[in-house]
Specification:
By secondary structure, this protein is α+β, with helices and mostly antiparallel strands. The protein has a single domain, classed as Cyclic Phosphodiesterase, Chain: A. The chain contains 3 helices and 6 strands; from the N terminus they run αββαβαβββ. It has a 4-stranded antiparallel β-sheet with strand order 3-2-1-4, sandwiched between helices. A two-stranded antiparallel sheet has the order 5-6.
Length: about 140
């Protein structure tokens, strides 16, 4: 689940950003996240996602606190909506199949951290650092 979409950060700003993320994590307690069923953003965007049934407000509060850092401010195309993307920008029949196949999906687990990922422009997204909630 994304709390803040891809955001370009200058390397010189990274220590301050990581300090901000550590403070955000310390100020928020672990919580239970319940993922259940599917949703879609169609026709606006070609996305099918697993919906958040519980933990929505916790995700929203974390996302807002993370984005409050001057080094992380960005213009969002859409308002924040916690979800787990499972298909994006694929053929309509593939989106329909994923939507139907995961309609009965359900998972519940404790969220006790979030992770900062980095991208060099060369390889895949790589986890950089975990931030434990409530510590």
């Amino acid at each position: 689940m994304t709390l803040l979409g891809p955001t370009e950060i200058q390397m010189a700003s990274l220590p301050a950003v990581e300090q901000h993320l550590a403070a955000v994590a310390a100020a928020h307690l672990p919580f239970t996240l319940h993922l259940r069923g599917t949703g879609t953003f169609r026709p606006v965007t070609q996305v099918v996602f697993v919906a958040v049934a519980a933990g929505i407000s916790e995700c929203e509060l974390l996302a807002a606190a993370i984005a409050a850092s001057p080094g992380l401010r960005r213009t969002a195309r859409f308002p924040y909506h916690p979800h787990v993307t499972v298909a994006q920008d694929v053929a309509a029949d593939a989106l329909d199949k994923v939507y139907e196949d995961l309609a009965d999906f359900s998972a519940m687990f404790e969220v006790d951290a979030f992770t900062l990922f980095s991208h060099s422009g060369q390889a895949r997204w790589q986890p950089r650092r975990d931030f434990r909630l409530g510590t």
